[in-house]
Amino acid sequence: MILVTGATGHVGGELVAALARSGRPVRALLRKPAAADALPDGAESAVGDLDRPASLRSALDG
Q1: What is the spatial distance between Cα 52 and Cα 48, in angstroms, rounded to a whole number?
Q2: How high is the pLDDT of residue 61?
Q3: How far apart are CA 12 and CA 3, in angstroms?
Q4: Does the pLDDT value for residue 62 go beyond 80?
């Protein structure tokens, strides 16, 4: 599983899309759950904030 931070930005969004297209397991770290609607098919999402380490547990599982 590849975790991408900044997945809603330009570079992070392109990276998530490219990984999903290639069939790689990818998980996008999002601060806002609603942002998951914009992710490409095949990409997982996890809600967390790099400034709050305890919120990253679910993103790092698997």
Answers
A1: 7
A2: 85
A3: 10
A4: no
pTM: 0.87
Q: Which amino acid is at 56?
A: L
**Residue-wise pLDDT tens digits, 17-47:** 999 999 999 999 999 999 999 999 999 999 9
**Which sequence spans correspond to the domains of the chain?**
2-60
- 3-state SS of the chain is CEEECCCCCHHHHHHHHHHHHCCCCEEEEECCHHHHHHCCCCEEEEECECCEHHHHHHHHCC
Q: Which residue has the tokens 């698997």?
A: 62
How many Cβ atoms from other residues are within 10 Å of residue 38's Cβ?
14
